[in-house]
Amino acid sequence: MTKEILLTGDRPTGKLHVGHYIGSLRNRVKLQNSGDYDPYIMIADTQALTDNARDPEKIRNSLIQVALDYLSVGIDPTKSTIFVQSQIPALFELTAYYMDLVTVARLERNPTVKTEIKQKGFKDSIPVGFLNYPVSQAADITAFKATVVPVGDDQEPMLEQTREIVRTFNRVYDCDVLVEPKGYFPAKGEGRLPGLDGNAKMSKSLGNAIYLSDDEKTVQKKVMSMYTDPNHIHVEDPGQVEGNTVFTYLDVFDPDKDTVAQLKEDYQKGGLGDVKIKRYLNKVLEQELSPIRERRAKYEKDIDSVYQMLIDGSNKANEVANQTLEEVRDAIGLNYFKNR
Ligand code: TRP
């Protein structure tokens, strides 16, 4: 049986946090271990440069951190091909061909790009490469003929745009070279983890994240600082569970649903203090985070082998992407020199 091809990745603009873990990393590990897929995991350093061109050092330093994050959550290089986007030249040639099939107006309508342009405060100074990144992402996905793309919910517009490009390309060049991908998203209500401060988004810039690389002490301090119910002042007061970050995290992380239900009941009745529920959450989090930390420590001792893994992965990725590029050039008719 031929396996379905899975492709996904992250921009290396910092360390990955538990929000990434819930939003997509743990799905990737699950799909990898199911044995039904041939997974490619890409560190999207070129995409990261689209809004960090003047700070390449940040991307350079984050690259190895993200590689360690992948390995520590259980992405297994004997099962998944981990590679680096900038080392795969075919991706950029594919991007160039796809750019001719997409209008500027269509890119400006991409909802995720639109939101990010606002967030990043580009105003009238949007880098061309940034506006174009959905097209380059279509190249990443189609170069491997991936059918499954496990990502966070915010990436759905990228997949929509990739499918459009695939259909346009195959129609315009009258071929079936490119393959349409499907997104693979987190289960309902489990996609987005709020920040420690209760903000809907966990992010580095908001300073409200728990990193996969945080040590035990740091995690504990962060958990103890979490936003709960601002009106729950005395232990005896009835507390609110909705919008209470500690309970949101427990819903996501604690496999013991009965205990969580009981804690919620007690909290709502009054008599259960914030410190108690935070200590409990810390214990639950540690069950998930301590094996991740142990694996990280092992790989950190052998950074050379981590780089070697990226070299091997990128070599393999180049073979696959070059093959697709060849087919794309043939489909467009750029094969003038072939057989001469
Ligand atoms: N855009 C993704 C992010 O924001 C990273 C990415 C780049 C990606 N190329 C991809 C994800 C291809 C899935 C498939 O992190």
How would the blueprint of this fold be written?
Layout: E1 4-10, H1 18-34, E2 37-43, H2 45-49, H3 56-73, E3 81-84, H4 90-99, H5 104-109, H6 111-120, H7 128-131, H8 133-143, E4 148-150, H9 156-172, E5 182-184, H10 216-224, H11 245-253, H12 257-269, H13 274-300, H14 303-332
Parallel strand pairs: 1-2, 2-3, 4-5
Helix pairs in contact: 3-13, 4-8, 4-14, 8-9, 10-13, 11-13
Written account of the structure:
This protein has 340 residues and is mainly α. It has two domains: 4-192 and 303-332, HUPs (Rossmann fold, 3-Layer(aba) Sandwich), CATH 3.40.50; 216-298, Tyrosyl-Transfer RNA Synthetase (Orthogonal Bundle), CATH 1.10.240.10. Helices cover 55% and strands 7% of the residues. The chain is built from 14 helices and five strands. The chain has helices at 18-34, 45-49, 56-73, 90-99, 104-109, 111-120, 128-131, 133-143, 156-172, 216-224, 245-253, 257-269, 274-300, 303-332; strands at 4-10, 37-43, 81-84, 148-150, 182-184. The strands form two sheets. Strands 1-2-3 form a three-stranded parallel β-sheet. α1 (18-34) links the parallel β1 and β2 (37-43). It starts with a strand and ends in an 8-residue tail after the last helix. The mean pLDDT is 95. The structure holds tryptophan. The site of tryptophan has 14 residues, from β1 and α8. Tryptophan (TRP) binds at residues 7-11, 42, 44, 47, 137, 140-141, 149, 151, 155.
CATH superfamily of the largest domain: HUPs
Profile the largest sheet.
3 strands, parallel
Q: What are the bound molecules? A: tryptophan
CATH class category of the largest domain? Alpha Beta
What order do the strands of the largest sheet run in, or round the barrel if closed? 1-2-3
Return the average pLDDT rounded to an integer. 95
Tally of DSSP helical segments: 14
β-strand number:
5
Encode the helix/strand succession as letters.
EHEHHEHHHHHEHEHHHHH
Low-confidence stretches: none
